[in-house]
Amino acid sequence: MIRDRLKSGLRSAAIKLFKMEKDQEPHAVPNVKLDRAPVSIDRSVIPKVVAGSGDTPGPNHKEDVGRTVLSAAVHSGSAPVIIDHRPPAECAGGMLPGAICVPGLGLKARTDLLPADKSLRVVVYDQLGSDESVELAAWLRAQGWTAARRLKGGWAEWIEHDEPVVSPAPPTGGRFSVGDPVERADGSRHWVQEGLPGMKYWLWTPEHGTIGPVSESELK
Questions:
Q1: CB 220 within 8 Å of CB 185
Q2: Residues 124 and 92 in one domain
Q3: 7 located within any domain
Q4: Ranked by mean pLDDT, which of 6-10, 48-52, 152-156 comes out on top?
Q5: Domain span at 64
Q6: Residue 15 domain-assigned?
Q7: 192 Cβ neighbours under 8 A, 6+ residues apart
Q8: Is residue 86 a contact partner of residue 155, using CB atoms and an 8 Å limit?
């Protein structure tokens, strides 16, 4: 302790004797001008955050995803696989960008549409985010797609806040689009669920679910 006091006293005397006070002052950090261009932000693509069920939950929720979270992914080009399981006639009025129309619980028979890497995100939605969407997302998680989520608020929440939508188009050279009623040569009536390259289609009825692919030459 005596040694420490002696050191402290000698240090103070040296500072006064040799006028070293300036060395005890904190060194000022000079202003550095960075040669960077200002960041430009397109605020028109930032999802609106408002009070409502679609704004939550966030990306870490185990069962649901909110509108703003999914919208940000769509705008950034990193959207998950999106399944619209409304009837084709409703899909015809508009869908989320990149969504695939697979009505009802038909996805259980069309897992070929899902990513082979089961760790990737999958989002399912219907008109209002009903219990059927909850059931379908839970079934997907049970099958190994652990990041499957239900879009909370569904299609209604999405369009209420002017999020981007697309209208399904026929395959190149084809006559029919999603939601079009068609009749097969055997007289059975269906709705177009999905158009495929080569003018082929998946068809759907509430009673029999999905059938196909069916060539356009078989339809009238």
A1: yes
A2: yes
A3: no
A4: 152-156
A5: 45-160
A6: no
A7: 88, 176, 177, 178, 179, 180, 182, 201, 202, 203, 204
A8: yes
Residue with tokens 């990737």: 120
Residue 30 within a domain: no
The token pair at 8 is: 């402290």
* Digit-coded pLDDT (tens) for 15-61: 454 444 444 444 444 444 445 455 555 656 555 555 444 556 666 78
What distance in Å separates the CA atoms of residue 177 and residue 30, rounded to the nearest whole number? Answer: 65
Specify if 149 maps to a domain.
yes
Backbone angles phi, psi at 11, to 5 degrees: -65, -40
The count of structural domains within the chain is 2
Please answer whether residues 152 and 163 qualify as being in contact, where contact means their C-beta atoms are separated by less than 8 angstroms: no
What is the amino acid identity at position 170? P
| DSSP calls for 45-82 | GSPP--SSGGG-S-TT-SSEE-HHHHHHHHHHT---EE
DSSP code, position 204 = E
Tell me, yes or no, whether 185 and 214 share the same domain.
yes
